């Protein structure tokens, strides 16, 4: 994959990071003061078996640092993974709306650090839980740092930030027993939801496949709030930010997520790390929805309500530029754990709106970093440092790393030549957008925020049949974990305001009385852009394909299929009963990537069983291998087999799927691709057909449900 030439901004950020890197090769062990240490295995004692002496400064320094080397984890978004990269706009069309250079000058490539995360779980929780995912991007622009702190879901649970502590307390493990970890399937969360109908739109998204992303590389990102762009004339335009992945939007299935949590709890962070290390750099396109200020009240919802979207059919998403992640951090703690995002980190040309949730975040993020990172100087940590020059009158404090010279630390001054000076005007300096604000001081919600169900219905109506089935199953699972049946019943009542049939089917699965009639007619509106299945990418790039082999396998056929899959950008891996090599039927050897017992079908996107009677007999005799194929079929994945490999598919009992019986044809039935031909006559259509099925991500026609179509 080719990348754009390096820019001065890339070099500036790299120099900052390089100055903080310490390579231990060829060095001597010292204390923190630089004194060489000759023995770090034994503490200083009064005799070989005596007590340790207080004067052992190395021992005390080493233990003290260890005692203090953990910082408080984030209250939310504690578990994350990050990477460096760059953003570059396609052209300058957005200059009509904003003076933010990094969005408008196609010659400028801006360094970024992106952190993906789950919301609810602790740092040690699993990656594949049902949860919202954070998608936070720090742009190191020449005008200063800009943080776009978003999620993979475009709306939020609450409308006003004063409710955020209540929501987080409700969704976190229950305080009396600290159970369950990283899960919303418990009483306190659903009790909160039952009493806060504003949450219903977000709960529809959370119960959907959006909460189970296949990969960070295959999920959308959203700024959530309505922000404001400001142009050179000081004119404002409302904006919503969107990230769209180049690989399409794809999810896991619920059964998979639970098994992956046991097989590989680091599934998503490992995927991000490995793909970057392999040079398969993840990409997203930044897009914007723009609304003139004259149209602020032109919608049937309030633009300042964070529980609402702007349907793309009403305001299209216009492409702005490309984000590429191309370098992993050198140290997880120093970079991914210490990166500090803040919604109020803005640059000239981007400003806030009066969204009450955004206003609360603008306070909360800074307040949180002061505790987590030990004081006010966290912006000096290398991963957080701007590439723009920094000159302030701030001094001292915990973890101050600068050595400020001169007598003055105040403005205005004459002793320091008036520096640092305030000068210039917008757009060179940040200037808050000017708008008239007036009103009576009240503690109340705007009436325009009080439609809690219309967009939840819009989301439901926009889902494909498989997506609806998964939402119903998720509600049944989550509410089935709720002990108090009155909470279950209240949620069903709320769902009856969303869609009557949805409420009936959910109620039927959780043991509460179904509503007899709809209380609010379904408005019938939909937004096709909300369905993941409508936005799938036609590619199998970076898809992991398991190829099951044993001694006697058709080596020529395996090599041919592997080469054809790699040509399409996929990542085929040979799995065998044991690690090492397998001897092929033609006497050649194939190197095995992994022993099949160390992995599972849930870690792969598709499966192929090659020809070779001896190989297939060995694999068919292994219950784990047979289960591997059957489970991949259960999870709606593409499966391929050629020659005698079809016998393993028969052993796995793939229902009524039709399999090939002659060497001239390639049969595709319910995502299962077969041909009776072996390597010497393998039709070229086999790999093409298999790749098409993998690109579908899942073969949903295998799934059945009682949800009305």
Structural class: alpha+beta
Runs in which pLDDT lies below 50 for 5 or more consecutive residues are none
Which CATH architecture of the largest domain is right? Beta Barrel
Task: Quote the distance from N terminus to C terminus.
Answer: 43 Å
* Radius of gyration, CA atoms, in whole angstroms: 29 Å
Care to describe what's here?
- The protein contains 19 helices and 19 strands.
- It starts with 7 loop residues before the first helix and ends in a 14-residue tail after the last helix.
- Helix content is 28%, strand content 15%.
- It has helices spanning 8-20, 57-67, 101-104, 164-171, 187-195, 200-206, 254-263, 267-277, 332-337, 356-372, 454-462, 465-480, 485-498, 500-510, 555-567, 613-620, 623-634, 646-651, 685-695, and strands at residues 80-89, 110-118, 133-141, 144-151, 221-222, 227-230, 236-245, 283-292, 318-327, 350-351, 544-548, 571-576, 581-583, 589-591, 594-595, 606-609, 638-642, 667-669, 672-675.
- The mean pLDDT is 94.
- The protein has three domains: 80-363, Beta Barrel (Catalase HpII,  Chain A, domain 1); 450-534, Up-down Bundle (Hemocyanin, N-terminal domain), CATH 1.20.1370; 540-702, Rossmann fold (3-Layer(aba) Sandwich), CATH 3.40.50.880.
- By secondary structure, it is an alpha+beta fold.
- The strands form three sheets. Strands 1, 2, 3, 4, 5, 6, 7, 8, 9 and 10 form a ten-stranded antiparallel sheet that branches. It has a seven-stranded mixed sheet with strand order 15-12-11-16-17-19-18, sandwiched between helices. The protein has a two-stranded antiparallel sheet with strand order 13-14.
- Helix 5 (187-195) packs across helix 13.
- GO terms for molecular function: catalase activity.
């Amino acid at each position: 994959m080719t990348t754009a030439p390096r820019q001065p901004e890339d070099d500036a950020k790299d120099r900052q990071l390089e100055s903080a890197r310490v390579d231990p090769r060829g060095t001597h062990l010292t204390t923190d003061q630089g004194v060489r240490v000759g023995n770090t295995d034994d503490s200083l004692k009064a005799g070989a078996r005596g007590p340790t002496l207080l004067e052992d400064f190395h021992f005390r320094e080493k233990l003290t640092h260890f005692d203090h080397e953990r910082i408080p984890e984030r209250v939310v978004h504690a578990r994350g993974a990050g990477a460096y990269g760059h953003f570059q706009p396609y052209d300058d069309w957005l200059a009509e709306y904003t003076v933010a250079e990094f969005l408008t000058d196609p010659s400028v490539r801006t360094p970024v650090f992106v952190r993906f995360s789950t919301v609810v779980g602790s740092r040690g929780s699993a990656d594949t839980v049902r949860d919202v995912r954070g998608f936070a991007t720090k742009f190191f622009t020449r005008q200063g740092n800009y943080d776009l702190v978003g999620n993979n879901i475009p709306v939020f649970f609450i409308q006003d930030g004063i409710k955020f502590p209540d929501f987080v307390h409700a969704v976190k493990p229950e305080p009396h027993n600290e159970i369950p970890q990283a899960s919303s399937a418990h009483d306190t969360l659903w009790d909160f939801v039952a009493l806060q109908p504003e949450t219903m739109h977000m709960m529809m998204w959370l119960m959907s496949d959006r909460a189970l992303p296949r990969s960070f590389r295959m999920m959308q990102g959203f700024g959530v709030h309505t922000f404001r762009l400001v142009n050179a004339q000081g004119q404002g335009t409302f904006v919503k930010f969107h990230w769209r992945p180049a690989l399409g939007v794809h999810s896991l299935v619920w059964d998979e997520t639970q098994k992956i949590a046991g097989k590989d709890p680091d599934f998503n962070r490992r995927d991000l790390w490995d793909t970057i290390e392999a040079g398969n750099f993840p990409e997203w396109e930044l897009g914007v929805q723009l609304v003139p200020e004259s149209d602020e009240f032109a919608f049937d919802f309030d633009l300042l309500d964070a529980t609402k979207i702007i349907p793309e059919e009403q305001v299209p998403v216009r492409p702005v530029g490309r984000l590429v992640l191309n370098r992993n951090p050198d140290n997880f703690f120093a970079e991914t754990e210490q990166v500090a995002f803040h919604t109020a980190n803005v640059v000239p040309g981007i400003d806030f709106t009066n969204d009450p949730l955004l206003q609360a975040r603008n306070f909360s993020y800074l307040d949180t970093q002061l505790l987590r990172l030990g004081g006010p100087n966290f912006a000096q940590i290398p991963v957080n440092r701007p590439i723009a020059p920094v000159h302030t009158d701030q001094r001292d404090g915990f973890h101050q790393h600068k050595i400020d010279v001169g007598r003055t630390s105040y403005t205005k001054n004459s002793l320091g030549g008036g520096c640092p000076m305030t000068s210039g005007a917008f757009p060179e300096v940040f200037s808050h957008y000017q708008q008239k604000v007036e009103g009576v001081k009240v503690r109340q919600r705007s009436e325009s925020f009080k439609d809690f169900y219309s967009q939840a219905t819009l989301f439901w109506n926009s889902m494909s049949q498989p997506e609806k089935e998964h939402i119903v199953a998720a509600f049944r699972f989550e509410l089935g974990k709720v002990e108090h049946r009155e909470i279950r019943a209240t949620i069903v009542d709320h769902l009856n305001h969303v869609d009557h049939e949805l409420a009936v089917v959910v109620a039927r699965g959780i043991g509460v009385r179904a509503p007899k009639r709809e209380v609010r007619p379904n408005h019938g509106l939909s937004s096709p852009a909300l369905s993941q299945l409508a936005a799938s990418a036609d590619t199998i790039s970076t898809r992991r394909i398991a190829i099951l082999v044993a001694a006697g396998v058709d080596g020529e056929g395996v090599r041919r299929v592997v080469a054809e899959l790699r040509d399409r950008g996929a990542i085929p891996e040979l799995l065998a009963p044991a690690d090492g090599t397998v001897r092929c039927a033609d006497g050649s050897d194939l190197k095995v990537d992994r022993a099949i017992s160390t992995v599972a079908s849930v870690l792969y996107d598709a499966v192929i069983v090659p020809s070779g009677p001896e190989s297939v007999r060995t694999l068919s005799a292994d219950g784990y291998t047979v289960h591997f194929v059957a489970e991949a079929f259960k999870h709606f994945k593409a499966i391929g087999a050629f020659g005698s490999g079809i016998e393993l598919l028969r052993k796995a009992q793939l229902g009524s799927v039709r399999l090939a019986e002659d060497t001239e044809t390639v049969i595709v039935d319910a995502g299962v691709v077969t041909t009776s031909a072996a390597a010497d006559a393998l039709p070229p259509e086999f790999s093409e057909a298999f790749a098409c099925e993998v690109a579908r991500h899942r073969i949903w026609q295998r799934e059945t449900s009682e949800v009305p179509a």
